[in-house]
Amino acid sequence: MQKAIHIVAAIVFASCLINKVASYCYMEPTCLPPMDEDGYWYPESKPCDVCKCFVEKNYVRICKEAKPKLSLKKSSITAEIIPDPELVIDEVEITKEEADAFKCPPAPGHTLNYITMTLEEVPHQEVYYYYIVSYSSCCNTEMYYSSVPPECEVVKTGCTSEFFLKGTSQPCPMDAGVATMVG
Hints:
Layout: H1 2-18, E1 25-28, E2 40-41, E3 49-66, E4 70-74, E5 79-83, E6 91-93, H2 96-100, E7 110-113, E8 118-121, E9 124-140, E10 144-147, E11 152-157, E12 160-165, E13 180-182
Parallel strand pairs: 6-9
Antiparallel strand pairs: 1-9, 2-3, 3-9, 4-5, 7-8, 10-13, 11-12
């Protein structure tokens, strides 16, 4: 009885190893249109592959810059506060080429308050400089059998493969042996 349990355990373990599915994936340095709304695209040169596009901000520097000045503009009904056109925003996109040599502008210093005759710090904010990086993670979706029982044959249709009894359209029975699927 103990010997039978060991044999069954060995068969189950071996079939788990043999039936392991493998696939290959790779990175593409860009994203190519057309993409669906979830960012997936399909390379024309590899019809059985699917790629997922990722677009990320690659932050280069955090700079201390002067806060924008506000100016008053009076309308006939009300006075509105309008931001200065030179408004400094929290994030600034630059190109990859600009990022290689990017240096922060000089940090704001102090100004003299002529009323109190004291030095006051110029109001500032942190500005994040970044460039956009896009890349794709691609995987092959093709499934095929690398090891098939002798009484069966593999029939490839598009990106999938199935195995049938030789010379028929009957599926190869599962008890005919173990086929190893590789993706």
